[in-house]
Design brief:
Number of strands: 10
Keywords: Membrane, Transmembrane, Transmembrane helix
Largest sheet: 4 strands, antiparallel
Strand content: 15-25%
Mean pLDDT: 87
Pfam family, one: CysS_C
Oligomer: single chain
Number of helices: 7
Order of helices and strands: EHHHHEEEEEEHEHHEE
Distance between the termini: 32 Å
């Protein structure tokens, strides 16, 4: 079995780097608070005025704590977006956001990447998975071809996609409703919600992908 995942330096380093950077940024804003209060056009003036009123060392301690906490939240979100891929001769497992997507060898006809997305196709051309990650394309290709899977250079169905519009006539009402909900999630940068809605759409026999916040789809053959 071959496992492709972020390096240990990335997986563990973010828990140190993000809080440190967060603390540094907020501490820097604390140092600039007096100057910022002279810029009446700058937003959140009340917050910076409050900061200048807090005595030392409490203001520094609070700034470092708030920054580190914010950095910790960022690290948590970053870690949730990381994906690991386990490729063996008889199956493929994708692990992301505490979810496991498991596919048998006979379910997978071919594999490719599109941008940062890893896509698994079934023998019928259906998309079994389309998941985003920062994993190296070269490492993924090596892992899949090393276990005998067919690797493609591009999406063989790229020309079949069309842009989704409200109440698309060739889609059932429930699928259009999912596209509408997904459009709202994309506009609010709710990436995991958008990904979950895409999975629900795929379950209904429709493939979906995004380009510049526009949704494109194709119906499975």
């Amino acid at each position: 079995m071959t496992t492709v995942q972020e390096t240990a330096a990335v997986r563990y380093g973010i828990w140190v780097l993000c809080p440190v950077l967060g603390a540094a940024v907020v501490w820097g804003l604390k140092l600039a608070a007096v100057w910022i209060t002279t810029l009446r056009w700058f937003p959140f003036q009340g917050v910076f005025e409050l900061v200048t009123d807090i005595p030392e060392p409490w203001v520094t301690i609070a700034a470092l704590a708030v920054g580190a906490l914010g950095g910790g939240v960022l690290a948590l979100l970053w870690a949730a977006e990381m994906m690991s891929v386990e490729v063996s001769h008889d199956r493929v497992r994708l692990k992301k956001n505490d979810k496991i997507f498991d596919f048998g060898r006979n379910q997978i006809e071919s594999v490719f990447t599109e941008g940062k997305q890893l896509v698994l196709l079934s023998p019928s051309g259906a998309e079994l998975a389309r998941e985003s990650s920062d994993l190296s394309r070269a490492r993924l290709e090596q892992a899949f071809t090393g276990q005998g899977y067919r690797w493609l250079d591009a999406d063989p169905f790229a020309d079949d996609y069309r842009m989704w519009v409200e109440h698309a006539p060739d889609l059932p009402a429930d699928v259009n409703a999912l596209f509408t909900a997904r459009r709202k999630a994309i506009s609010k940068y709710e990436h995991e919600e958008a990904a979950e809605l895409a999975r629900e759409i795929r379950k209904r026999g429709v493939c979906v992908k995004d380009e510049k916040k526009r949704q494109y789809y194709r119906c499975e053959r």
